[in-house]
């Protein structure tokens, strides 16, 4: 990993990846694998309950400075201020919102069969 820091004043052109939060290991911050109700870190072997997983930000951007293009990736809690909350907090909000708007397929198909269908 490159430990040098450089400051860049640039314009953001695009998000490189729409997935900007990931479940992370509490010990090494690597991406963990969530399976059923368990989590496993492939890097350090740490295991736990998937419901207790912490999330981290990983924001990959394509930016332009003058006539140069760069792809930069920003990790971790430095993005908490930008988003206004932690990645774990954002994940909880997104999950709760998705749970509210999703309708089971069986309910949707039942609703269609009970409504009067227009004739063509």
Automatic annotation (TrEMBL):
GO CC terms: cytoplasm; nucleus
Gene Ontology BP terms: negative regulation of intrinsic apoptotic signaling pathway in response to DNA damage
SUPFAM superfamilies from the UniProt entry: Nucleic acid-binding proteins
A Pfam family annotated for this UniProt entry: Rep_fac-A_C
Residue intervals of the Replication factor A C-terminal domain: 10-102
Source superkingdom: Eukaryota
Listed InterPro entries: DDIAS, NA-bd_OB-fold, Rep_factor-A_C
Name this polypeptide is given: DNA damage induced apoptosis suppressor
Species name: Macaca fascicularis (Crab-eating macaque)
